[in-house]
């Protein structure tokens, strides 16, 4: 109440003010768009072929140096990992400066120098730029590649690879590339302990000789520095870098699968499944489709507001995010949609991802969504101008990707010209939902059953193939455990009966009345369940004391009542209910079949089937029932629900579970039993 | 001698540069208590609007941890004038991008826009502060999203739980003992009324700082701020956490297991003073000496020379009430975790007994100057620093002169801080092991 008065006063106080000033119910109209200035870097070429670009920006007293070697793709095959070792070894001393002195001097100047296998990067305060440039050039031209450093980096890489084996997202990324491009393709290969073991120091030196050449090199200098100074430094320190021919190997073009399939990688430690839907893309940046593909990808999964993210995150709450990317450039690349979801919704998430890809292929995008995607691109283009690197990257792309000189000047115009028809057309051309690999990395014992039952849309299932964490095809994993031949349906059921109190006690029970409670998203739920030995039951779910749902079966007919609506059981439900044997189905072994052994949350259990829709699991050690699993058809789709039983406590000489965790789809509710009455509180009235 | 001259010349040189780089700003308070900071810079047509609320994990009820982070999600659900699901669309439709983050001490929301949309950013942030819609639908949706975030960022991540383990062991009373992601059970149990109460308590103008930075017209923006934020009613005074931890007097030994790792880790954590103390900055320098760069002491010894560690690092975690100084190492070649501890301790003892060399001291000056220059590289970086210095450090001028504090720290102070704070009986030693090793 107090709050109410306070805000009321506030309203009165400010009301005239608000009226006089702004109408906050309307979005503000932005001012005219800011003008965009795209400057071009100054550039020159050295005699050895190296191209140098300079972007002067004096806002901060610092300079950055980027070296990029635009070499052909190369696969190291059984020596994959050699490029990582070279990258780690570069920038650690030169043939004339020891590693210790080199690193000490760079650190001393508060600067940094790093290399990739085909790139280099340095940054420093402008006052130390000359020296850092010199050190950087020396490290690129005359690296210290010695045995001791090699062994150390090799040990470190091997150790890191050991850790990667358990990292679900790393495995997903590596195997999805290996499957898409092929393990022998430069973009598909990845380092393993085995390939790294094969690498010698000579291999690293060879790799350096083959690829570190000014032939395809671009040097970009950005920051508080004059063009003439860079020119002088480049001539002094890079012109003497001898030109070498770079190794150029050709690879067969990767192709897509003939039909869409699931490629499953089992990782028992996964608490989330990594999902990837991917196919090959060949698209140059100069291609007329390029801008339409950018927009199509943005609409499908390039942005928070995209189809994928809105469906899987905002609507379903299954993931922290779902995204897609579509590459473009002079090398082969891919369409790649991905997300991480919890185990229970893995199959549903695959269905929804495919649904959204089909959606963008089959339906024209709505105008406001198209406008949104364009606005986002325009904004990103403007925001990127804050970084001086942007100007350098644009100029570099024009060179490397062979683009027209006015590519970036026309960029926004082209983006804004993309139509809804363009989006649909390129989606069909590049997002190949019928030739896609769906790579799922996750915990097979929990997610595989569902994945095997994803309908292609024609009543047949999407086939599943199995791979190990290295991308090798393997047999379907088997989660069932061999059973002792002396175990029969009778022994399993008898163990259970004896564990909870014995046949004599159970036969005396005519009815059980259970009261339980649960909290669901802050609300109190109650459950009252009455079951009799002659197969009558009633179950009511209450929220805040009010009935939410009630199910009643009197032995012959039954109904469900929800939100004031009564629905009589259909024939299938009736048949299922009549199959039931009341309180303890275990007393009637004739109606049960022993399916085999399984695990429930890591506990070994016997699985027993009752009819074709219910399976119960009994702890192999204690005999107690730990889980019921029910399969029901909802609108033609089989839906699985389960109840986990725990915390067995004695009531009237019989052990009853005092927690029941009910799961259906992504929902999970844990009921705690507050009261159990035997042969008490139940009358015929309850089943009407 | 030549070297000396060179250094003096450099210092003079640096002085002029740093002057040139000064971040100019203007600050004032609205009648409702909202603190406003403006920074004008027209190098690119870009603007940031951001609001920092002084509410973080440490302000939570111990039975309801994760609330501040949960709000980081919830306050995107919509307002009286912004329908549910529209927030991100609006930002995108003006070409902007936005995000938020939560720490133990504060929550920070921001939008980056092309500069013509500054009013949109102000409207949105004022909507969020004035009348966000907090209902069961939003709570339920974000509850699932937060759970996925935890699985993604924590439970499925190698070493993902290590920080939670450290905090749990380092703090017994202070709310730093839990992590911003909080407890999923607490979030499940929370009622809508509790969320509404949390909003009313913390997300009020008198508990917030608004920053507008970039290519702005200052008088125009000031008027917009008054129009959009002026009418927001002031909230009740916010009571700050004031919980003192007892000093650690003997080593805390802890073990934790992670199913996502194969390589064990050993971590040492020392409790240190609040972020705005001089000593916290001295300890920043200590961690630089030990592990910043390939020539740092720990890296050179354990990774390079002795090849005992795959990785070794030292961090100084700066926070409002207490800091933590951490050293972390992954063994290589079957080195035992005990040996790693021994080696790291040796280096700390060296810092406690010997002054660092003049050259190392000069290096520190270069490293911190470089860090200072880079921290002001983007409008977003400047906006975040302005809000942080104003709200958490209580001195906004640090954006320009914190570097002077670092410059004035002496070699003796470094030795003194190591002596005072980095002793084995003042720390946690955590062995973080692969789940497979659990017996």
TrEMBL record, chain A:
<dbReference type="Pfam" id="PF00675">
    <property type="entry name" value="Peptidase_M16"/>
</dbReference>
<dbReference type="InterPro" id="IPR011249">
    <property type="entry name" value="Metalloenz_LuxS/M16"/>
</dbReference>
<keyword id="KW-0732">Signal</keyword>
<dbReference type="Pfam" id="PF05193">
    <property type="entry name" value="Peptidase_M16_C"/>
</dbReference>
<protein>
    <recommendedName>
        <fullName>Peptidase M16</fullName>
    </recommendedName>
</protein>
<dbReference type="GO" id="GO:0046872">
    <property type="term" value="F:metal ion binding"/>
</dbReference>
<dbReference type="InterPro" id="IPR011765">
    <property type="entry name" value="Pept_M16_N"/>
</dbReference>
<feature type="domain" description="Peptidase M16 N-terminal">
    <location>
        <begin position="74"/>
        <end position="179"/>
    </location>
</feature>
<dbReference type="InterPro" id="IPR007863">
    <property type="entry name" value="Peptidase_M16_C"/>
</dbReference>
<feature type="domain" description="Peptidase M16 C-terminal">
    <location>
        <begin position="198"/>
        <end position="376"/>
    </location>
</feature>
<feature type="signal peptide">
    <location>
        <begin position="1"/>
        <end position="20"/>
    </location>
</feature>
<dbReference type="InterPro" id="IPR050361">
    <property type="entry name" value="MPP/UQCRC_Complex"/>
</dbReference>
UniProtKB/TrEMBL annotation, chain B:
<protein>
    <submittedName>
        <fullName>Peptidase M16</fullName>
    </submittedName>
</protein>
<keyword id="KW-0645">Protease</keyword>
<dbReference type="GO" id="GO:0008237">
    <property type="term" value="F:metallopeptidase activity"/>
</dbReference>
<keyword id="KW-0482">Metalloprotease</keyword>
<dbReference type="InterPro" id="IPR007863">
    <property type="entry name" value="Peptidase_M16_C"/>
</dbReference>
<dbReference type="InterPro" id="IPR011249">
    <property type="entry name" value="Metalloenz_LuxS/M16"/>
</dbReference>
<keyword id="KW-0378">Hydrolase</keyword>
<dbReference type="InterPro" id="IPR011765">
    <property type="entry name" value="Pept_M16_N"/>
</dbReference>
<keyword id="KW-0862">Zinc</keyword>
<comment type="similarity">
    <text>Belongs to the peptidase M16 family.</text>
</comment>
<keyword id="KW-0732">Signal</keyword>
<feature type="domain" description="Peptidase M16 N-terminal">
    <location>
        <begin position="36"/>
        <end position="176"/>
    </location>
</feature>
<feature type="domain" description="Peptidase M16 C-terminal">
    <location>
        <begin position="190"/>
        <end position="366"/>
    </location>
</feature>
<dbReference type="Pfam" id="PF05193">
    <property type="entry name" value="Peptidase_M16_C"/>
</dbReference>
<dbReference type="GO" id="GO:0046872">
    <property type="term" value="F:metal ion binding"/>
</dbReference>
<dbReference type="Pfam" id="PF00675">
    <property type="entry name" value="Peptidase_M16"/>
</dbReference>
<feature type="signal peptide">
    <location>
        <begin position="1"/>
        <end position="20"/>
    </location>
</feature>
<dbReference type="GO" id="GO:0006508">
    <property type="term" value="P:proteolysis"/>
</dbReference>
<dbReference type="InterPro" id="IPR050626">
    <property type="entry name" value="Peptidase_M16"/>
</dbReference>
């Amino acid at each position: 109440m107090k709050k109410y008065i306070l805000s009321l006063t506030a309203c009165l106080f400010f009301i005239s003010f608000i009226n006089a000033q702004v109408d906050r119910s309307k979005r503000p109209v932005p001012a005219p768009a800011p003008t965009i200035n795209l400057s071009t870097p100054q550039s020159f070429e050295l005699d050895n072929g190296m191209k140098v670009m300079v972007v002067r920006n004096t806002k901060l007293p610092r300079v950055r140096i980027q070296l990029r070697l635009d070499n052909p793709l190369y696969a190291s095959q059984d020596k994959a990992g050699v490029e990582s070792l070279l990258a780690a070894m570069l920038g650690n001393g030169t043939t004339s400066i020891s590693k210790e002195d080199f690193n000490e001097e760079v650190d001393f100047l508060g600067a940094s120098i790093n290399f990739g296998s085909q790139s280099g990067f340095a940054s420093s305060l402008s006052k130390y730029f000359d020296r850092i440039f010199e050190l950087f050039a020396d490290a690129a031209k005359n690296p210290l590649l010695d045995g001791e450093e090699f062994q150390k980096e090799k040990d470190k890489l091997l150790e890191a690879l050991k850790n990667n084996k358990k990292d679900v997202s790393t495995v997903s990324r590596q195997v999805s590339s290996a499957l898409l491009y092929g393990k022998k393709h430069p973009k598909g290969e990845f380092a393993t302990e085995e390939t790294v073991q094969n690498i010698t120091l000579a291999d690293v030196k060879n790799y350096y000789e083959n690829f570190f050449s000014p032939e395809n090199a671009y040097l970009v200098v950005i920051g508080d520095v004059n063009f003439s100074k860079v020119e002088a430094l480049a001539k002094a320190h890079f012109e003497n870098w001898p030109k070498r021919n770079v190794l150029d190997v050709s690879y067969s073009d990767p192709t897509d699968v003939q039909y869409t399939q699931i490629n499953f990688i089992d990782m028992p430690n996964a608490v989330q499944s990594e999902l990837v839907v991917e196919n090959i893309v060949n698209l140059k940046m100069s291609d007329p489709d390029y801008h339409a593909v950018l927009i199509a990808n943005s609409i499908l999964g390039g942005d928070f507001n995209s189809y994928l993210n809105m469906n899987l995150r905002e609507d379903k709450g299954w993931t922290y995010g779902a995204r897609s990317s579509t590459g473009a450039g002079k090398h082969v690349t891919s369409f790649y949609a991905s997300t991480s979801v919890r185990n229970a919704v893995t199959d549903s998430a695959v269905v929804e991802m495919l649904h959204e890809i089909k959606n963008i292929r089959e339906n024209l995008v709505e105008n406001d969504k198209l406008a949104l995607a364009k606005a986002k691109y325009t904004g990103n283009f403007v925001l990127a101008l804050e970084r001086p690197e942007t100007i350098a990257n644009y100029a570099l792309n024009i060179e490397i990707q062979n683009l027209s000189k006015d590519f970036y000047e026309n960029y926004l115009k082209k983006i804004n010209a993309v139509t809804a028809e363009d989006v649909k057309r390129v989606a069909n051309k590049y997002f190949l939902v019928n030739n896609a690999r769906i790579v799922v990395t996750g915990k097979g014992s929990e997610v595989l059953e569902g994945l095997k039952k994803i309908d292609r849309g024609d009543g047949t299932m999407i086939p599943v193939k199995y791979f190990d964490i290295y991308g090798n095809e393997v047999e379907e994993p088997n989660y069932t455990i061999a059973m002792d031949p002396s175990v029969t349906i009778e022994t399993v059921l008898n163990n259970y009966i004896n564990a909870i109190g014995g046949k004599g006690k159970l036969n005396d029970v005519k009815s059980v009345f259970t009261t339980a409670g649960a909290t669901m998203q802050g609300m109190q739920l109650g459950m009252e369940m009455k079951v009799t030995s002659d197969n009558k039951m009633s179950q009511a779910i209450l929220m805040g004391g009010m009935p939410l749902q009630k199910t009643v079966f009197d032995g012959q007919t039954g109904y469900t009542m929800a939100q004031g609506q009564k629905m009589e059981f259909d024939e299938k439900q009736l048949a299922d209910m009549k199959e039931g044997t009341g309180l303890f189905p275990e007393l009637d072994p004739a109606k049960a079949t022993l399916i085999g052994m399984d695990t429930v949350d890591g506990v070994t259990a016997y699985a027993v089937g009752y009819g074709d829709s219910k399976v119960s699991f009994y702890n192999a050690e204690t005999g107690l029932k730990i889980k019921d699993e029910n399969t029901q058809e909802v609108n033609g789709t089989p839906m699985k629900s389960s109840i986990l039983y725990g915390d067995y406590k004695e009531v009237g000489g019989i052990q009853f579970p005092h927690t029941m965790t009910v799961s259906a789809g992504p929902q999970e509710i844990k009921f705690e039993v507050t009261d159990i009455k035997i042969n008490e509180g139940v009358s015929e009235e309850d089943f009407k | 001698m030549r070297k000396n001259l060179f250094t003096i010349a450099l210092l003079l040189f640096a002085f002029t540069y740093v002057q040139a780089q000064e971040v100019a700003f203007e600050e004032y308070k609205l009648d409702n208590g909202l603190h406003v900071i403006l920074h004008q810079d027209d190098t690119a047509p870009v603007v940031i609007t951001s609001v920092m609320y002084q509410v973080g994990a440490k302000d939570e009820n111990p039975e309801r941890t994760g609330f501040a982070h949960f709000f980081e999600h919830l306050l995107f659900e919509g307002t009286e004038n912004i329908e549910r699901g529209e927030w991100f669309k609006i930002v995108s439709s003006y070409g902007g991008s936005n995000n938020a983050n939560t720490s133990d001490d504060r929550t920070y929301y921001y939008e980056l826009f092309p500069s013509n949309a500054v009013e949109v950013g102000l409207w949105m942030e004022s909507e969020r502060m004035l009348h966000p819609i907090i209902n069961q639908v939003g709570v339920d949706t974000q509850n699932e999203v937060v759970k996925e975030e935890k699985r993604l960022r924590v439970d499925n991540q190698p070493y993902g739980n290590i920080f939670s383990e450290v905090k749990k062991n380092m703090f017994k009373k202070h709310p730093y003992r839990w992590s911003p992601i909080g407890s999923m059970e607490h979030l499940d149990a929370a009622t809508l009324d509790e969320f509404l109460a949390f909003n009313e308590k913390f997300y009020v103008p008198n508990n917030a700082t608004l920053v507008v930075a970039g290519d702005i017209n200052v008088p125009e923006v000031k008027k917009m701020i008054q129009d959009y934020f002026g009418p927001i009613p002031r909230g009740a005074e916010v009571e700050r956490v004031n919980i003192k931890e007892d000093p650690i007097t003997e080593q805390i030994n802890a073990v934790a297991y992670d199913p996502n790792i194969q390589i064990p880790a050993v971590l040492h954590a020392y409790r240190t003073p609040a972020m705005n103390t001089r000593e916290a900055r001295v300890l920043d320098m200590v961690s630089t000496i030990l592990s910043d760069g390939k020539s740092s002491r720990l890296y050179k010894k354990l990774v390079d020379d002795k090849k005992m560690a795959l990785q070794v690092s030292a961090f100084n975690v700066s926070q409002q009430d207490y800091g933590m100084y951490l050293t972390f190492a992954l063994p290589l070649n079957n080195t035992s975790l005990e040996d790693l501890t021994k080696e790291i301790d040796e280096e700390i003892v060296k810092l406690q007994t010997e002054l660092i060399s003049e050259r190392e001291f000069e290096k520190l000056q270069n490293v911190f100057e470089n860090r200072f220059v880079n921290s002001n590289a983007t409008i977003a970086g400047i906006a975040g620093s302005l809000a942080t210095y104003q709200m958490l450090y209580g001195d906004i001028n640090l954006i320009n002169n914190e570097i002077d504090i670092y410059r004035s720290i002496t070699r003796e102070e470094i030795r003194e801080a190591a002596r005072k704070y980095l002793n084995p009986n003042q720390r946690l030693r955590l062995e973080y092991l692969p789940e497979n090793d659990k017996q």
